[in-house]
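Issue 218. Parser rejects a valid record. Input:
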Amino acid sequence: MRIELQLIRLWFIRKVEAAGYHLQSMKRFRPVDARSHEGNPLLLSYRHPGRRLLLNAPVAWGFGLLNFPFDRPRPLAAVMQRALSSPGQERALIREALTHFYRDWQPRTAAEFFGLDEDEAGELAALPTWLSPWPWDPLTLEQKRAQRRRTEGRENARVLGRPLGVEAGWKFCGPVSELKLHVEVERLARVLESVRIHGIRRHDGTDGDIRAIVLSHPDGRWRWQVLAGQHRYAVISALGEPRIPIRVEHFVRREDVLLWPGVASGLFKPSAALKVFDDCFSERVMQPVLALTEPCLPYRNREGAQHEVEADTKRFDPGLAQ
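Output the parser choked on:
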């Protein structure tokens, strides 16, 4: 009987693969739980090759929506706690904060978005801001163009119920139209409402964590960049959580700069690419997390159990995680 079941399983897998799909067990799919790991997580990529890693990462070392570039004020930090404790007022508070952010931060090109001087800009000076590619981005420029249009259009349609193209604005900077502003306010407010009701939750499924890449410096320091879950990151970081679970997809090493796709293609000069990388390690990223006036929100895992996240208002050391 056992042999027959194995043959049936093998037959089914082959049929699925013949149709162009691949099955993977949840044991292999779920990330390696490394939330207790201290130090540079690059070590774990060698211990668990090809696996995604679940880290409990310092929020102050991350960057993503509304937290880039690093020398600009974080627009939600001053209002998110009040919005959390004021049901019914969160949209007005978030809208006011975003209105100022999108009005004050309006880079004209991808080069301006990354803070590159004229002699470093190259082709980036001719690219629209919404197309800004990171130097380590694996996609070609045309692939990135299609991806950004598709992603922004899909996100807008989920809120509006109808298409709205990237020409109406990009969520990372201004200018944005009134409709796009409404979309971003609504998405952030919905995340906040979920946090208010359920706490901060995660699970092992495809969309169960903030997905990120880790930037690794030769001196041992590391930072992380949000790949997916931008609105979750924006809300949770603004609430003052000192650490947050992230699912690491892959690593970017500074010493590999000449191999980064944006550099290899000639879109970025090596010096410009390194400037973008090094800016992610700027002391400006390391602003202390605001002290909370209330206990940190409960973190709930996939099974529903609660784990209190301890409030920690001390400044993170800009070197290795201790």
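Fixed in the parser; the record now loads. Residues 178-198 form the longest helix (21 residues).
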